[in-house]
Amino acid sequence: MRWTTFLAAALLATPALAQSDDAVAPRDHYAASQMASMRAMNICSGLWHGGLDLATIERELNGRDASFGVLADQGGTGIDHQARMVSTRYTDGMPPRVVVWRPVLGCIQLPPGAGPDAAEYLPRLPGDFAAPNLDDRAWPTGDRDALRPLTGDRAARLDSLVAQAFDGQTFGGRTWGVVIVHRGYIVAERYAEGFNRHTASQTHSAAKSFAATLVGIAQGQGIVAVEDDHLLGQWRSPGDPRAGISLGNLLHMASGLNTRGMAPPRFMDAYTQGTAVPEAVAGNFLAARPGSEFVYSPADTMLVMRALREALNDDARYLRFPYEELFWRIGMTRTSMNVDGQGNVFGSGQSWSTARDFARFGLLYLHDGVWNGERVLPAGWVDYATTPAPAQPAEGPGYGAQFWLYGPQHGLPEGSFTPSGGQGQYAMAIPSADLVVVRRGTDLGPGFDIARFSAQVLAALQD
């Protein structure tokens, strides 16, 4: 079970928070704090990174379905546009949950009990470290000449399919963006009301593929290697069996750590309670031999990014690394990877990106890690990331190194792969067809059938 499914079930099972005219009645403080943080994060990121208006944020991110109204305003939400701060009340006797936007880094939450004054201690980058404006450059780094629309029957077939992706019935889910890239150029693109090509929204677990890519870059620079173990200072005490967990084990979701579901330590506390990553996940114990068992867990990816931080041993470089070494090199200037209050990049989620940036990311992998003639990823990394890991999921798509793997059994050519994030975030790469199918959504329930949609896109492109 993926964490978004588990979280949805847990939240839907939580009794509605009682309201009064002037306060929130004390109930389950843990759940109330969690919901308040999620609401504040959506508003903060949606406003100041995504460029969404409040109406779209409330409709698409904070509970656009009546049965999932858990992120509604329960006790008062304050938005300070000057300080780029959102506060959400959730119970009597405690300060509101506070989330603060930082340039480049995105929105960072304070832990429960911390007042707005604590924001001064949150991580920040120097003021002159800003995303370059590459929009006027030629596609794919920029937006110029990105579109090469089809003509004739192929255009009609593809336009019909893209329209069906938005109807909520044919392929399921609730779609806000589709970008189809064939032979290097965009041949179809469409957005729902409130979104456009420069709108960023939650990637959810698709961020895991970004994290793996950063590891690939770092391996190419000799900073880490997937065979490395003794990754964290917390695991290096003599006799600690966790020292045997390798970076490859973490990338393959096979750390062996006790990370099933919401078992303590709770990785969700890092997402929604302001708990630092080392406190939330690094203190876990082994439940299986490293490498022996696939257990999908955001905790493993958080530990990947923590291991990269310790290997770099330079916190300023670590915070700049995703942008200098990956995103800005390939034109993903509207993508961010959020950090916790101690400057740990989550990597497992809490990332925001546009549909076009997803397309750029897919193209990087489609072209074996080479961008405009420059090698970004070391030779062999794409093969590593998209080769089935030794331990595999019991059902569904296969798993590589933070990528989901598809093939003929899913109606797609052998060697197809994609990042995959909750609520339907995909950049399906089909190397044999020189095709990237991006679909972004705000799904609930069964979600969007990316394999069937991608297969039909591929068929529509045939002469």
TrEMBL record:
One Pfam family, short name please?
A: Beta-lactamase
One of the record's GO molecular function terms? hydrolase activity
Top-level division of the source organism's lineage: Bacteria
Q: Output this protein's name.
A: Serine hydrolase
UniProt keyword Signal, yes or no: yes
Identify the stretch annotated as signal peptide in this record: 1-18
Under InterPro entries, the record lists:
Beta-lactam-related, Beta-lactam/transpept-like, Diverse_Enzym_Activities
On whether Signal is a keyword of this UniProt record, the answer is yes
The protein's organism comes out as: Alteraurantiacibacter buctensis
Q: Which UniProt keywords apply?
A: Hydrolase, Signal
Which stretches make up the Beta-lactamase-related domain?
177-446
